[in-house]
Structures are given as C-alpha cells and as structure tokens.
C-alpha cells in the first residue's frame, strides 16, 4: 500500500474510491503519568508520551490502511493526521486520506 501526503502519485492515473480513516485513543498507566507530570517541572522531552503518540499514529495508520484494502485500494493519497486530548493523559489520534485505485 502506497501512502502519500500529496493528491497525486507521479506516473499514475488515479480513480478515487473514497475517504478512509483509522483512529485510536491511547493512554499511559498511572505510574508513568505521575513521572511525566513531575518531568514538566524540570523540563525536557516527555519520552513516555512521545512513545504513546508514536504507537497511536502507527495503530491509526494501520487501521486506515485496512479500511483502504477492504475497498480494493492500491494507495491512499492526501494522508493527514490529527490528534486531540480526550482527558488528561489520553489522546485520540486519527489518520485519514483518500483511497485510490490505479487505472
């Protein structure tokens, strides 16, 4: 599956199949949440949250690809990501784009 953030793929004629998306809501455990809260006092990278968001993006992407494959797509163009806080220590990540088939 080809994933691009442009609305075209060089050398390919595309047939649009429709919008596809994948999402997840992730959180860290309470112990990690407390240590990350303390980290905000001294500054620096919040590695546990960075890992959480990386995992969430990967899972959202996987779910988007699965939806595209179920439509018979060869690629997803205009891939975008968005995230929002659902509650303290939990975030939703959504991946979305347009499923396409090569002509």
Automatic annotation (TrEMBL):
Organism for this UniProt entry: Jutongia huaianensis
Pfam families associated with the record: YbjQ_1 (PF01906)
Protein name listed in UniProt: UPF0145 protein H8704_10985
Family of the protein in this entry: Belongs to the UPF0145 family.
Top-level taxonomic group: Bacteria
InterPro entries: UPF0145_dom_sf, UPF0145_YbjQ-like
PANTHER family referenced in this protein's UniProt entry, alphabetically: UPF0145 PROTEIN SCO3412, UPF0145 PROTEIN YBJQ
